[in-house]
Design brief:
single chain, about 425 residues, alpha/beta, 13-stranded mixed β-sheet
Length: about 425
């Protein structure tokens, strides 16, 4: 057997003693700084795609249950404390992901004094740091933003405490985001009234290169600023819709989004909201994804989507979190369907969900369908006879069934 070293490398036992000796006598400082930087970046890299501007299947929902970012940040903290060399190399990597917390004053000084602010690519800015209880309450947050000119991702998270505990009494300033590519925004009406960096509309107007937008919250028309200006986001390709109400959907449908290609429904919407968003954007979409939410089990959301968006080429959803629809026979241009098998143990008959979804796919009319891609753990489903029959049926129609890693499942002759 072998010996497991830190970092999950399995080393054969016969080589371990000599490797230990070599490592103890090797001068690590003789390695080039570029190599150490590559090693440190590899060791502190979280799961890819969680903060990217491009669309990736199932990343929006998986981010809620994945601890990759937190683990990566913990490793970064540890690395900068190993030695002076590693600290000098890794400090810029540590400050790529900035989260404003209780030490905001110290953070503002560190970011503003040297070059570390220019290293920041992602910033998480809670609303209590941009409150306007006084005319100057938000100045520190604005100072932090000004110190991060290369910001590519901005997160305005959900308030963990009572929203009314944070006061927004005075207007605040806007800030330009020329490099911003991804924005995650939880909307609060009382915050929006202060404008500037607390207003989604103001931030979007100052983000001309935004590609990915995730929005949540409820919009009250009484707090919305009356405007005849139509918001134009020329570079936006991905819209992730979290829990929002119909007035918010109505406002989004007024926006000009000429490059929009992917819509993620992270939370199920009511029928009026769904019909509105499909009517406005459905004809231009390439991909639609349903999130991992129990609300998608309460009604048949798939049939409504397919009827309203017959031009969509790719569809993603979670088989254990989506109600199996009846056989679909309307015109449809689907070419690829991605299925995720993340388990849901809240229903006694949930083990029947995969079979019912595969039955829907094999019996429905999808003449253009060429690929079905399986994500997650299908280990207990693949050996089942109904799954083998499904693969055979789809293969005979010219449709490949494959795992996300690229391995193809073929029926046995």
């Amino acid at each position: 057997m072998g010996r497991l070293l830190k970092g999950s490398f399995l080393v054969p036992s016969q080589y371990y003693s000599s490797l230990q000796t070599d490592m103890s006598t090797y001068d690590h400082q003789s390695l080039p700084s570029e190599l150490w930087l590559s090693i440190i970046r590899w060791a502190t890299c979280s799961q890819p795609g969680f903060d990217g501007a491009t669309f990736e299947p199932f990343v929006a929902s998986s981010a809620r249950i994945n601890k990759g970012e937190a683990d990566a940040l913990t490793v970064k903290y540890a690395v900068v404390q190993v030695c002076r060399l590693w600290r000098d190399l890794a400090l810029s990597i540590l400050y790529e992901d900035v989260r404003v917390r209780h030490g905001a004053h110290a953070l503002a000084e560190v970011l503003g004094d040297g070059q570390l602010g220019r290293c920041a690519r992602r910033l998480e800015l809670p609303y209590h740091h941009t409150s306007t209880a006084t005319p100057k309450s938000s100045d520190l947050a604005l100072q932090i933003l000004q110190s991060c000119p290369g910001l590519e991702t901005l997160v305005r998270p959900f308030m963990q405490g009572p929203p009314d505990a944070v006061r927004f009494e005075f207007p605040t300033h806007s800030h330009p985001f020329p490099n911003l590519k991804r924005l995650e925004w939880w909307h609060y009406n009382h915050a929006t009234r202060s404008g500037g960096i607390n207003s989604l509309t103001d931030v979007l107007n100052y983000s001309p290169n935004l590609q990915y937008l995730a929005v949540g919250g409820e919009l009250w028309m009484s707090s919305a600023k009356p405007t005849f200006h139509v918001l134009h986001l020329p570079a936006l390709t991905t819209l992730c819709v979290r829990r929002i109400n119909f007035p918010f959907i109505h406002e989004i449908c007024r926006w000009q989004l000429p490059s929009l290609a992917h819509v993620i429904l992270d939370f199920p919407l009511d029928q009026d909201a769904l019909e509105a968003i499909w009517e406005v954007f459905g004809s231009r979409l390439c991909t639609v994804e349903f999130g991992m939410h129990l609300g998608f089990l309460l009604s048949d959301q798939i049939s409504l989507f397919l009827r309203c968006c017959p031009q969509v080429k790719t569809f993603h959803y979670f088989v254990y979190f989506t109600s199996p629809p009846p056989v679909f026979t309307h015109p449809c241009a689907l070419q690829c369907i991605c299925l995720h098998a993340h388990p849901c143990h809240m229903f006694p008959d949930s083990d029947q969900f995969p079979m019912r979804h595969l039955s829907f796919l094999s019996q429905s009319s999808f003449p253009e369908l060429r690929r079905i891609i399986l994500y997650g753990n299908w280990r207990n489903i693949v050996p089942e006879s109904y799954f083998k029959d499904f693969v055979q049926t789809m293969n005979c129609r010219g449709c490949l069934v494959e795992h996300a890693n690229g391995s193809t499942l073929l029926h046995e002759s």
